[in-house]
Structure formats: C-alpha cells, structure tokens
From TrEMBL:
Its EC number is 2.7.7.7. It is an enzyme of class 2 (transferase). InterPro entries: DNA_pol3_clamp-load_cplx_C (IPR008921), DNA_pol_HolB (IPR004622), DNA_pol_III_delta_C (IPR015199), DNA_Rep/Repair_Clamp_Loader (IPR050238), P-loop_NTPase (IPR027417). Keywords: DNA replication, DNA-directed DNA polymerase, Nucleotidyltransferase, Transferase. Residues 209-316 form the DNA polymerase III delta subunit C-terminal domain. One of its GO terms (cellular component) is DNA polymerase III complex. It catalyses: DNA(n) + a 2'-deoxyribonucleoside 5'-triphosphate = DNA(n+1) + diphosphate. GO terms for biological process: DNA-templated DNA replication. It comes from Photobacterium aquae. One of its GO terms (molecular function) is DNA binding. This is DNA polymerase III subunit delta'. The keyword Nucleotidyltransferase applies.
Amino acid sequence: MLYPWQESLWQQWQQLLDQERLHHAILLLAPAGSGREALARQLSKTLLCSNGVTEPCGVCHSCRLFEAGNHPDYHQVAPEQAGKQIGVDTIRKCTRLAVETSQLGGQRIMQIDFADAMGEAAANALLKTLEEPPAGCQFILMAEALDKLLPTINSRCNKWRLAMPDEQDTRRWVGRQLMQDVKLEIVRINGCAPLATQAFIEQGQDIRYGNLLSAFAAFLQPPHLGLQELVGMFAKEGHHSLSWVSYFLVDCLKLQQGAGSFLVHSESLPLVQQAAAAVTSPLLMNQIRKANALHRQLDTHTGLNTELLIMDWLMGFMPQPKL
Ligand SMILES: [Zn+2]
C-alpha cells in the first residue's frame, strides 16, 4: 500500500516499467519516516509478479510469497542494528546472490535500506556489481541524502527524490491518522516526514519534548536552577534531544535578529522569547555549534559519559567564575 505523497513518483516508475526502461539500479532519496520502504516494496513486488507489468496482480505464486515475506528472490539488506554500519560481509553476500540465478525464474531484487550506512569497504564491494550489472537483477538503494553516499555509488544509480508533503499537508494527514490536533513545530522538527511525525506523537515524545523545552527555557534564566534534573531528562531522551534544543536555540537567534516569522517553534513563542531575552547572541551561536558537535560525537562514539558531557555543555550557559 502506498501513501498519498508517493503516488506521483510511483506513476513515473510505472511509466518506465511499461516502456521497459527502468534502470537496473534505483537510488531512492527520502528521509526515514517517509514510508520509503512501502514504495520500494511496491516496486519489488511488481517486478517479481508473474502477471502484472506496472502493478502486482496480488494472486500469483510470486505475489503470495512476497506478501508472506517468503519470496526467495527478494533480498533485503540493512544494518544489523539501527544506526550501525552495513558491513562489507553483508554486501559481499548480497553481491554473490546478485549473480546467482533466480529461484523462481524471474528477477532478483536487492533492496539496500540505509545505503548511506555502508562503510567505504562495503560501498566499494557493491560498486563492481553495479558497474557490471548481472542480468535479471534489480538494485533498489535507499538513503536520506546524496552527501552521505560515495560519489562512485551515486553515479552508478538512477536517482529519485521522494518529495515530502508540505508542513500543512503533513499536519493534516497525521491529524487524521491520530484523530487529534498536531502542532506544526512537531511536524517541523520531524522534517515534515509524516510517519516520523506520527510515531513521535504515538510514542509520547511530543509531550516529553514539551517538558524538556520548558525545563530548558527555565534553566536558561538566572540563577540557572534545575541543572541535575535537566541532565537526567536529556540523558533519558538520548542524543536526538540535542538536535531538538538546537532547533530551539536557532529560533532564539532568529528572534534576536528580527526574523521572528520564520520560527520552527511558532507555537511555543513565549518560551522562545523568554530564552532569547536571557542569552546573548554570541553565546547562543557558540552553544549551538557545541551542541551539534556533541551530537555528532555521541552518535559516532560509544562508551562516552553522556551525562557528564551534556552537563558540561549546559554549564556553558551559566556565568563563568572569574579567576
Ligand atoms: Zn502477481
């Protein structure tokens, strides 16, 4: 099943399928939380179907195997753990399967979710197969953005970008799914990706996000109370909470520079105003930079003392003792 914002891209693919002009390696650029897997599955199912050309018939042996998750010629590659790299061994296994004959006599599909999680060795292992594509083998790669992929991989693929609905459409769609009002700022911090926004609310992250922002804005006021509790909230929420507050601090900076109509947090204006009045622009810029660096650091290195590092960053908002 496809989502409404995927229809137009799907129609373009259907046209290529109809004309037998689909490239052997598709690269789908779309954020996580866009439902991109559904689009890749629809294409795979159609290619594998013994009856349909531009649409899976849903009744043939292949379609039934696909729906049951047992199709022997449909191979999905993903990191073993979310957020981790796809190893070179995983890609080698995939390229071996790519040159074998199909079990059902049709095509073989190699779907690489999170292609941007391939390390350099893995990407290089894939490259050779992409350069000399085996007959009857379709590659479908998915990634968030081009800049996270090796240029040599990019250049071998036919690239498609899945456009996200605009923020109002996303808000309406998520609102209908959950039967509740959805704040635009929640849509925005989720990059307008509808499924990401929906999951954010379903998991109660929107409420925890609101609590964290309130506690953070209060802490920014002298005499900077509640440091320990705030560190606890950040640590419990994980690294992405640093990107949340980074959006918030950028809003404070925009307000100070008179760009108040472009705020992400348009629904939390009082909080932004309060914080913007308490922190100077140079300090804001410095702390935003540090928050982004810390986020990257925590993402790439395990075993760091998260609480200590976050506390250190938060203390950067407090007046420094004179020596
Ligand atoms: Zn079928």
